[in-house]
Amino acid sequence: MASRAEHEILVVAGREVAISNPHKRLFPEAGYTKLDLVRYYTAVSDGALRGAGNRPNVLVRYPHGIGGEFFYQKRAPPSRPPWVDVAILRCPSGRTAEEVVPRDAATLVWMANLACLELHPHPVRADSLEHPDELRVDLDPVPGVEWSQIREVAHVVHATLKDFALVGWPKTSGSRGMHIYVRIHPRWTFTEVRRAALALAREVERRAPALATSKWWKEERHGVFLDYNQNAKDRTIASAYSVRPRADARVSAPLAWNEIDSCDPGDFTLATMPARFAQVGDRHEDIDRQPGTLDALLDLSARQAAEGLGDAPWPPHYRKQAGEEPRVVPSRRRTPKHPLVEIGRARKKIDAIEGFERWEARHPEASGHLQPADVLVDAMRGRFQTWTRIRVNLQHVPAALRPAQEPLDPDEDMSDT
Known about the structure:
Blueprint: E1 7-12, E2 15-20, E3 25-27, E4 32-33, H1 34-43, H2 45-52, E5 57-61, E6 71-73, E7 85-90, E8 96-101, H3 105-113, E9 116-121, E10 134-141, H4 147-163, E11 169-172, E12 178-183, H5 190-207, E13 212-213, E14 224-226, H6 273-280, H7 295-306, E15 340-346, H8 349-362, H9 364-367, E16 375-381, E17 386-393
Parallel strand pairs: 13-14
Antiparallel strand pairs: 1-2, 3-4, 5-6, 5-9, 7-8, 10-12, 10-14, 11-12, 15-17, 16-17
Helix pairs in contact: 1-3, 4-5, 5-7
């Protein structure tokens, strides 16, 4: 039987929430515990609920802290308190899942007790599950891209949105990139919202071709990728105030547009954000007051299609869509655009990276020609967990020095992930 010291009872939003193992370290380097996580989400709950509240959320759990294995849990635990609300979602696979819908700070604290560091809401409200009320612009830099370039692309996105009479709300991702959310009227389907996001990504690429890309395949990307597929049904990303699994416990920080040029993602952590929130409030406080329309972006999409730019690849596991280009990695086509070799597949990223380091040791001459963006580290999402695949683009390696495809190292079985 657990001792009293292993539990604490907190009263949050008028409800009692039990915290088990409150002093368990979730961030070993920084020393932050589960109780620190609970206190953080209590302090920023108004803003966190503006981003993730009243929406179904995927639970991303780190029971052994950020150094251990984590997993995605779509289905709400059966043993939840009666005041934890749920919504039933139908996934693209045809399956259904009863997902948690946080309505108050008590539910955020209950989720934190499950070691849910991150908040991963769907872009829909619980009362309108088939019609998103936000378009998400995910600025994802390729390796080697500096924060200053992400800022530049963000400003191009801001100007483009203005030209289409839409309001963008920026935030750091809490990792390497930036997110820009656009509230919209919930009138369009997931497919239409994704189509609008793809049109926007292509327009930003047209305006800043040296800085941004809309190319889905990693081996074809450069600069900052605008991940239009984050708007596909069943996709989620970390919402505002979400804590991220980084050593310094960074959080996804809402920003004002005039803060972008002076901020750094490392400025915003589990330790620093509560004070900022108390001082300046929620930078996205008015986000729900200015919903927009996608009509102009959908008109742009139609014009792009007429010019030969049809649909772009969808994520794996989605049904093939009408008008979608072949969903085949370019390097596997009959005439590959770039020479690519796969290095290894592993459940843990560190094991995959160690396999890549062994490959580098075997091929020092080829390795000396690689640029940061040539090493493709793919986080592959299974049904329950992510796993890591590493590939190397040999485009900068002289042909005579290019290693052939070798047996994967490591080569772990991912069938049960």
